Amino acid sequence: MDDSDLLHSLISLLDENRVKYCVIGGQAVNAYAEPLVSLDLDIVIAAEDIEKVEALSRKAFTVQRFPHSIDLSKAESDLRVQIQTDPRYLDFPLHASLRKVLGVALPVARVEDVLRGKVWAVSDQTRRGSKRQKDLADIARLLEGHPHLRDQVPTGILDLLI
Fold first, then answer.
1. What's the gap between Cα 70 and its chain centre?
2. How confident is the model at residue 154 (pLDDT cuts 50, 70, 90)?
3. 140: domain range?
4. How many structural domains are present in the chain?
5. In the prediction, which pLDDT does 4 show?
């Protein structure tokens, strides 16, 4: 799946440059719920490091810049990395803790932040319907393991889960 070792190359780049980051998205859900297979790794990094990480990444990865993300890929890797640059996520690394992701101990956003990100994603009418359905399923997975978070999900989204 990752013959080019994209994951370890990225972690090394971030650690060597003392970049504060954390895993968000589906892999973060996997850290708190029964894991599902995914080839996506979504992370957020400290705002002050975004430009530096983008420049450093261009030396090691194929980089595509989008309005709210920087996507990284590498030949011989099926893993797709998306660095989220949406300002709503930028404080997530402040409260991250180490958890297992893809078999590696990585900083993961706290479960409340992961849920908040999934609520934002499901509420985004510009996202593809299939992506929003996956986000809805991720919310359900989080609530199964953390029912005390139910009051953090808008009623309209909860109604879709029933």
1. 12
2. very high
3. 6-161
4. 1
5. 61
